[in-house]
Amino acid sequence: TPLDRIRNFSIIAHIDHGKSTLADRLIQVTGAVTAREMKEQLLDNMEIERERGITIKAQTVRLNYQAKDGQVYTLNLMDTPGHVDFAYEVSRSLAACEGSLLVVDASQGVEAQTLANVYQALDANHEIVPVLNKVDLPAAEPERVKQQIEDVIGLDASDAVEISAKTGLNIEGVLEAIVTRLPAPKGDPAGTTKALLVDSWYDAYLGVVVLVRVKDGHLRKGQKIRMMSNGAVHTIEQVGVFTPKMAAVESLGPGEMGYVTAAIKTVADTNVGDTITDDRRPAEEPLPGFKPSIPVVWCGLYPVDADDFEKLRESLGKLRLNDSSFHYEAETSAALGFGYRCGFLGLLHLEIVQERLSREFDLDLIATAPSVVYKLTKTNGEKIDLHNPADMPDGSLVEEIEEPWIKATIMVPDDYLGAVLTLCNERRGQQVELTYVGSRAMAVYRLPLNEVVFDFYDRLKSVSRGYASFDYAMDGYEPGDLVKISILVNNEPVDALSFMAHRSAAERRGRQICEKLKELIPRQLFRIPIQAAIGGRVIARETISALSKDVTAKCYGGDITRKRKLLEKQKEGKKRMRQFGKVEIPQSAFIAALKMD
Ligand code: GTP
């Protein structure tokens, strides 16, 4: 296809504004899928994605559209995930396109994620066409929302396309806007091959499939290609496009998007953002790559039943095959036994992985408190990245601790602004900006990520009755007065319960966790002190008093079946306990304690 007949675009939107519905319509209207084949939400093909209505993996579809000018255009649609945790996947999808449709719900208006996504699209030099969706709703206010787009984003919205993705109204208007308002890709068909590696995943039949965007030259079957990051050479077995079904083609040229298979063993051998070139006539310079995905939140995952460890290991390996942003390494905990330290892009990512492990792999897991990555400088000059609070060296050996900060954008109706500002201030937030968008306030705050990973989203939703929208981007590291808090049960530290906190919040957090554990750990025949400590200094303490009499006493001489039942029940209960020194701690205590702020 000649370059001027290609358009590569993505759809950016706040969650629920109708991105997937519009994508489905575009596919349907251009006839890529017949109505009968058309399943709802075609692009969201993972079960959890569909249930939660969020798009995780970037997908792509090639559409053919005969425009009003009589020409047939090839439109490549890249689906992008909408959630903050996947900002990195958004950026790599955007790097493969020249333009974006900015979908805004005409009854809701601009939201925090709309903004975050627009900034990323602008960073990628995209031409942006505003699309007002859901104009079929009685509450739709297209004129007001257009004004908002101009005021807040600074985009000309006078010729925004007004549509209803649900009823199919004016989908043609979107297609015409793509053709007439978005730029065609540039590239040199005769140049040395340069293609951007956008994504890769494991397919049971084809092995590793690589999603590419060709910039210059061609990719063909039989061609020897070289990965510029590591020099690995592979022979292409198949090139193709997504219609959305995979369909083999002869070759992919400049401006085109599609897939390549080349007997690559594992996705770990493919680096997203890498440049693929021709092995015989290699390019000198790689394409500007994008930032690698770095896990920002870590937690330990342990099987509830120690016998499931092997199964956990296998399951993590399988998950990793299709999720290169998920990291894991073996670790052991005195309290929880053998498990894995796992790294995630954010809290939602963590939740999704946990859910997949329990749902698809039928694993019962305990997750330790999520922790961010701290940068430590020891007094001897050594620098380490701390992923697990349990590994924190003795305080006297640490010169400085730096913690990651984020820049958060929060949009909230005026009525709840006060509560939201209070929450941000409690979490050591620094206000950067406070402006109004109609009757909604937009607050930009810098916050330590450590204050956000616990329960910030939940608190934000509750203080704003669900009306606040939130998005963030990483904003560097800064030194902070952070301490490790250890929890001691019966005078023994329980490593899985230790956590990092700012000194100002240490006592409150320590007290909360001790109180919680007192409720959750069953009384035993002796007194059990529960303490929170910083180094050797105890900052909070509770005591579980001893049981005064034997619980089973009431069974003696009683009905034998009743007694047996009680014993069986105890045995079952045992499985869910962890022996710790002399004390048995129920799993539920770990889970509850770890879930707290
Ligand atoms: P994520 O995939 O979660 O990011 O959401 P999305 O932006 O893809 O939204 P989706 O397409 O799933 O639509 C969200 C909801 O809005 C669904 O219940 C749709 O049926 C509904 N919806 C989408 N477009 C329209 C529209 O034009 N009019 C009306 N009334 N509802 C719509």
Question: Please, could you describe this protein's structure?
Answer:
This protein is 26% helix and 34% strand. It contains 14 helices and 34 strands. Helix 12 runs antiparallel to helix 14 (587-595). The longest helix has 18 residues, at 503-520. The model is unreliable at 52-58 (pLDDT under 50). Guanosine-5'-triphosphate is lined by residues 13, 15-21, 53-55, 82, 133-134, 136-137, 164-166.
Largest sheet: 8 strands, antiparallel
- N-end to C-end Cα span: 56 Å
Work out the helicity level.
Answer: 25-40%
From the spread of the alpha carbons, the general shape counts as globular
Pick out its properties.
597 residues, alpha+beta, 8-stranded antiparallel sheet, 6-stranded mixed sheet, 34 strands, 26% helix, globular, binds guanosine-5'-triphosphate
Describe the protein's topology.
Blueprint: E1 6-13, H1 19-29, H2 47-52, E2 60-66, E3 72-78, H3 87-94, E4 99-105, H4 112-123, E5 127-133, H5 142-153, E6 161-162, H6 171-181, E7 194-203, E8 207-216, E9 219-220, E10 224-227, E11 233-235, E12 238-242, E13 246-248, E14 251-252, E15 257-261, E16 275-278, E17 297-303, H7 309-322, E18 327-333, E19 337-344, H8 347-360, E20 365-367, E21 371-372, E22 374-378, E23 383-386, E24 398-413, H9 417-426, E25 430-437, E26 440-448, H10 449-452, H11 456-463, E27 469-479, E28 482-489, E29 492-493, E30 499-502, H12 503-520, E31 528-534, E32 537-544, H13 560-575, E33 577-580, E34 583-586, H14 587-595
Parallel strand pairs: 1-3, 1-4, 4-5, 5-6
Antiparallel strand pairs: 2-3, 7-8, 7-16, 8-15, 9-14, 10-11, 10-16, 12-13, 12-15, 17-19, 17-20, 17-21, 18-19, 22-23, 22-24, 24-26, 24-27, 25-26, 28-29, 28-30, 28-31, 31-32, 33-34
Helix pairs in contact: 12-14
Bound molecules: guanosine-5'-triphosphate.
Guanosine-5'-triphosphate is lined by residues 13, 15-21, 53-55, 82, 133-134, 136-137, 164-166.
